[in-house]
Amino acid sequence: MSKLVIVGTVAFDAIETPFGKTDKILGGAATFIGLAASQFNVDAAAVSVVGGDFPQDYLDLLANKNIDTTGIEIVKEGKTFFWSGKYHNDMNTRDTLATELNVLADFNPVVPEDYKDADYVMLGNLHPIVQIGVLEQMTKKPKLVVLDTMNFWMDNALEDLHKIISKVDVITINDEEARQLTGEYSLVVAARKIHEMGPKYVVIKKGEHGALLFHNDNVFYAPALPLEEVFDPTGAGDTFAGGFIGYLTKTDDISFDNMKNAVIYGSTLASFCVEKFGTERMQTLSRQDVHKRLQQFSDLTQFDIELS
């Protein structure tokens, strides 16, 4: 079985949407990625840091999902990374109310020894220097390295961001970030420019409008599943990334055709994530739930076009 290393935040979130609000709940990029990837029963390890205020129950939850937590450093005298946000009525825009780096400010990732030879690496949204530090610990070149990043690093660490982008095989960003990174409005042109920075594959996420996969001159588009209710979009992008890398790790096939399947799985899992606050829905998600929704995806997208 292929191994997967997941790097990112394990954190507390406090969220307010038009449907309600929460106190501190489980969040963080590595958490959402790990819970999504766990649907494929892969051999995965999370690399992150938390404070002494982080409940053991949350660590047990990850471990029970077959996620190795030995790479999650616990700084007993520190506090866990905390983010708070409020979503507008359209659920596509939000205001950040608080960001407390806490133990994340001095985080130096340590990849567990058993996972330094992993074939698959998912670099969740973190400072590019931290992401580079993870790759430098790998004892062999991974088969596939996927990078997720955001506009914050484009604004504050662009030079370092370009360094890590040049070292990865796949980058996943949203449409706004793709335009900012390249200065191009057309996503086709933006993807081409990102290819030139290093990645062989570019995934551009468009939220409720689906996702685009680019590889050289090949383009694949996957719609998002129309949902009756979107309760909380927090972590949907990370859940997409977790489904994407989890499927590729499980199948051990990094062809463009198989990446199309990975995009569909990522979109499917993200559609569950938004149904409840934080990670709540992902914690109870069953394989039967996923299979049923994949069938809905199939019914939504597949038909024979009659050429006259």
Chain-wise SSE layout:
Layout: E1 3-7, E2 11-17, E3 20-21, E4 25-27, H1 29-37, E5 43-51, H2 56-64, E6 67-68, E7 72-75, E8 82-87, E9 94-100, E10 120-123, H3 128-135, E11 144-148, H4 151-156, H5 158-165, E12 170-174, H6 175-182, H7 187-197, E13 201-205, E14 211-215, E15 218-222, H8 236-251, H9 256-273, H10 280-284, H11 287-301
General description of the model:
- It is built from eleven helices and 15 strands.
- It has helices at 29-37, 56-64, 128-135, 151-156, 158-165, 175-182, 187-197, 236-251, 256-273, 280-284, 287-301, and strands at 3-7, 11-17, 20-21, 25-27, 43-51, 67-68, 72-75, 82-87, 94-100, 120-123, 144-148, 170-174, 201-205, 211-215, 218-222.
